[in-house]
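Good day; I would like, with your permission, to put a structural problem before you. What I wish to show you is a protein chain and, alongside it, a tokenised description of its three-dimensional fold. Here, with my thanks, is the record as I have it:
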Amino acid sequence: MPTLTADPRAIAIAPAVISAALDCLGVLTDIDPIEPRHMHRIALALGCREPEATAVTLRLLATAAVLNDDRWLPWSRFHRNQTVDGRRIFDTALMHAVASLPLDHRGRFDADVFFDELLHILADPQITHVSGGAHAWRQ
């Protein structure tokens, strides 16, 4: 059981929580969603308590940093060009990476590792040929 002194960079967060938080941020048009306090409030609203709320906030900030990396542009185009099932698989792979990859001492993802993980997940034939959605990958 995590304690209040646990390092939030090392706390495991369920991909569904990350997905729900990103969905919330996506619909907030009247505030700056990248503001850490907004991300933290969303984590609390989703039922996270400390130190998990801080862990979610750190992962969201790390995700924002990765999405600002120049290497994200081709991934974004790839996502837009997918079928509905392809986008679902991509989204699942992205949420898995955000929820599970380690954060560095600054609370950021190593961008090289992040993009390598996406490539590794999406290059797996078991993932790319899944019919009916992404729920069967990495079982």
